[in-house]
TrEMBL record:
One of its GO terms (biological process) is nicotinamide nucleotide metabolic process. GO terms for molecular function: ADP-dependent NAD(P)H-hydrate dehydratase activity; ATP binding; metal ion binding; NAD(P)HX epimerase activity. It comes from Actinacidiphila reveromycinica. SUPFAM superfamilies: Ribokinase-like, YjeF N-terminal domain-like. AMP binds at residues 391-395, 422. This is Bifunctional NAD(P)H-hydrate repair enzyme. K(+) binds at residues 59, 120, 156. Its EC number is 4.2.1.136, 5.1.99.6. Residues 10-210 form the YjeF N-terminal domain. Its cofactor is K(+); Mg(2+). The keyword Transcription does not apply. In the N-terminal section; belongs to the NnrE/AIBP family. Belongs to the NnrE/AIBP family. Homotetramer. Bifunctional enzyme that catalyzes the epimerization of the S- and R-forms of NAD(P)HX and the dehydration of the S-form of NAD(P)HX at the expense of ADP, which is converted to AMP. This allows the repair of both epimers of NAD(P)HX, a damaged form of NAD(P)H that is a result of enzymatic or heat-dependent hydration.
Amino acid sequence: MRYGHSVETVRRAEAALMARVPEGALMQRAAAGLAGAGTDLLGRVYGARVAVLVGSGANGGDALYAAARLLRRGAAATAVLLNPERAYAEGLAAFRSAGGRVAAADGGARAVARADLVLDGVTGIGGKGGLRPEAADLALAARDGRGAVLAVDLPSGVDADTGEVHGPAVHADATVTFGTYKPALLVDPAAEFAGALRLVDIGLDGDLGAPELEALQHADAAALLPRPSGESDKYRRGVVGVAAGSERYPGAAVLAVSGALRGGAGAVRYAGPGGPAVLARHPETLVSAGSPRAAGRVQAWVVGPGLGDTSQARTAVDDALAADVPILVDADGLRLLTPEAVRRRTAATVLTPHAGEAAALLGWAREDVEGRRLHAVRELAARFGATVLLKGSTTLVADPDPGRPVRVNATGTAWLATAGSGDVLSGLTGSLLAAGLAARDAASLGAYLHGLSARLTPHPLTALDLADSLPAAWHNVSA
Ligand SMILES: NC(=O)C1=CN([C@@H]2O[C@H](COP(=O)(O)OP(=O)(O)OC[C@H]3O[C@@H](n4cnc5c(N)ncnc54)[C@H](O)[C@@H]3O)[C@@H](O)[C@H]2O)[C@@H](O)CC1
Ligand SMILES: Nc1ncnc2c1ncn2[C@@H]1O[C@H](COP(=O)(O)OP(=O)(O)O)[C@@H](O)[C@H]1O
Ligand SMILES: [K+]
């Protein structure tokens, strides 16, 4: 698992560790990691020009010590002090004694424009709000300059705990973060400002408490994959029911079934008007034309993709919500559901909205969901008492138990933004539910395989290509 911890947790862990190690040791570990990453970005340190953006906290201190290390290896470095009276004094002294220069009051932008490497040490976990105007101007100069931008701990200007970005922020090519990931490095919009991530161990691990976020890695995904055993038969592996598609949108039925067939359940039942289209593509499906209630036993239902809003669609959603098995509700199902019916359920419920659907469920504007994803997904899980998978450039999975870390998916790619790919995800995740996975495991493994599958499919991909690549993703994880 990759973990993300809140600022409060990081500060507590740092304080505990600092009480046991010599003064300044943590900052030196941070600076060593930064200088290493700077070296990798530069290729050749000797003769390189480095500009250091220095705010008034320890983040600036890290940057100054790292620059001192690069100076000792033959780089030239200029520090741009945003608040000269409050720059980290020991770091500044080390920087000067290694031969570093401080830019004149109006020379900052020039130093940045000429640099091969810009170290962004304006703010780290102590940053509040968007960058102040002087810092914002330098962030723009760094973006427009020729050098690589390396952020110290976090790209300055983003909100460390929420991944929100209020106003201007530094756009980094890479970020070196210390001790653990911070939520902003894993959740958009902030994560987009961070570039490539590198975690530097400063010895915090033993002192870190519970994470805010966790991201499955290959080994975690492999451990969750349902595998048939000697005693398995198709019913014991789980049967997933799919209530999707309509006369108007038969394709959604095909796509959801495609995902479901590759999700680990032993059989897929389809209930609804899309049967002929489903059978034409997937003859292995058990098809019926009526509502979920009449479709026979399943271990989980997927309801919603392409259902439309006819009375038959409403019945399908009501029936599926009334079934005492895990259920995944997507797309039109999210518009048709009765919140009370979701809250009353005792079996697991997974809701899979994209930002627009989440906005409608919350009564927020879509931009607010996209700007505050972590808040939105937690709020939905709390309001509905359900597991919520919020789709988009960052996919998040929140559990109804607020004490559980939110899961963030690391495999997504913008190539997934293609019509029908969400239908494949619904079928896939529902199948994992039917195979017996807990709701948040099914949702996070579904997102993981879905993203990986997109990465393994030649671009531009279609939703059916994506479904066809799921076995390759499965194999990739388990190999
Ligand atoms: N505490 C520790 O043990 C360690 C901390 N480290 C570094 O210390 C950082 C945290 O240091 P601090 O707590 O001093 O906080 P920061 O250095 O992140 O920022 C605080 C300073 O930035 C200013 N500031 C806040 N918001 C601003 C904005 N929007 N625009 C411009 N200026 C703004 C504040 O006035 C304050 O002076 C970490 O991110 C990490 O880089 C590392 O050295 C590792 C060890
Ligand atoms: N910019 C993006 N980066 C990564 N994944 C994305 C991006 N945009 C959309 N996706 C993913 O693509 C899928 C689209 O699903 P959805 O919005 O339901 O579309 P549809 O209804 O057409 O199937 C989701 O899994 C979502 O997370
Ligand atoms: K920074």
